Amino acid sequence: MNFALLIRKPISAGFALWLAGCASTPAPTPEPLLSGEQMLRESQGIASLGDRWKKGKQMVERGNLLVREGQNKIDEGNRMIEEGEKVMHESEDSYKRIKN
Questions:
Q1: Is the pTM for the entire model greater than 0.70?
Q2: How many independent structural domains does the chain possess?
């Protein structure tokens, strides 16, 4: 039996596994720590976004209130039109009865 061939195969297989491990993608490097100034700038930007969102929410709430108020006025206007038309028809009918 040729011992040199038996020893070579396990070594070459182990070597192949070692090479495959080295060829894999490297572990990602951790992001550098933020400096105090950078953290302050970013937190101010985030606070600005929060303020902007609050202003948008207030606009939506005010818009909804105006729509409700407008709808109430429309409803009131429609009631007035119906009542006015009723009064007009009654007056016309009364006039026709008086004329005849």
A1: no
A2: 1
